[in-house]
Specification:
Pfam families: SpoOE-like. By secondary structure, the protein is an all-alpha fold. Helix content is 79%, strand content 0%. Helix 1 runs antiparallel to helix 2. The radius of gyration is 13 Å and the shape is elongated.
């Protein structure tokens, strides 16, 4: 649980720094990092969504 939260914060920080450095969202590294963050966020949501039967 804590691992995912730490990973989200790490990727978020890296993404912000990279966008500030490149000055654009249209960069292969930015897109790749953004996709990785999306995947982690989906996993985080799965773990925090209650199952209703």
């Amino acid at each position: 649980m804590v691992y995912l939260e730490e990973k989200i914060e790490q990727l978020r920080s890296e993404l912000i720094c990279l966008v500030e450095h490149t000055g654009t969202f249209i960069d292969s590294r930015v897109i790749s990092l953004s996709q990785e963050l999306d995947e982690i966020l989906v996993e985080f949501e799965k773990q925090h969504t209650p199952l209703y039967l």
